[in-house]
């Protein structure tokens, strides 16, 4: 993201503003993660759909958020950015924290965080997950779950969630 900002800023004649934005984003990330070590914590990032959910793989914004807070993405072994995964696989990996996309669109099932949480807490395959039983949910807007300047917001919210859950060392 920083490289893209620095590459685009000259095209619009705003080199200094681009550098200022990069510096401001880096400072936000530094502050958010200064005292966070969640090396024993696994995350799952759920973007959309409850029949065959889109969960974050290795890359994209979750690929930046997770290492920034020192945690592990339970599906980092998947090369796709948002692979569709079945709930049995999720249950096998039993994440400590579920980062939930709180979407406003109506293209898939389970778009809102409320709908996703309701599903997680009532579905036989998910209601016994560690994150669900302990209600460890971090809610992010969809923009923060895709690579953009909102990724810094995602890092801040996940780091805050880890602190609130008592999972940050």
What descriptive keywords fit this protein?
5 strands; Rossmann fold; 2 domains; alpha/beta; globular; 13% strand; 169 residues
Q: End-to-end span in angstroms?
A: 28 Å
- What is the string of SSEs from the N terminus onward? HHEEHEHEHHEH
Number of beta strands = 5
Q: What general form does the structure show?
A: globular
Annotated CATH homologous superfamily of the largest domain: Nitrogenase molybdenum iron protein domain
Number of domains as seen in the coordinates: 2
Radius of gyration: 16 Å
Q: CATH topology of the largest domain, which one?
A: Rossmann fold
Low-confidence stretches: none
Integer average pLDDT: 92
Helix content: 40-55%
Number of helices: 7
The main sheet comes to: 5 strands, mixed
The name of the CATH architecture of the largest domain is 3-Layer(aba) Sandwich
CATH class of the largest domain: Alpha Beta
Strand % is: 5-15%
Structural class: alpha/beta
Structure characterization notes:
This protein is an alpha/beta fold and 169 residues long. The chain has two domains: 1-34; 36-164, Rossmann fold (3-Layer(aba) Sandwich). Helices cover 40% and strands 13% of the residues. It contains seven helices and five strands. Helix 1 (2-8) runs antiparallel to helix 2.
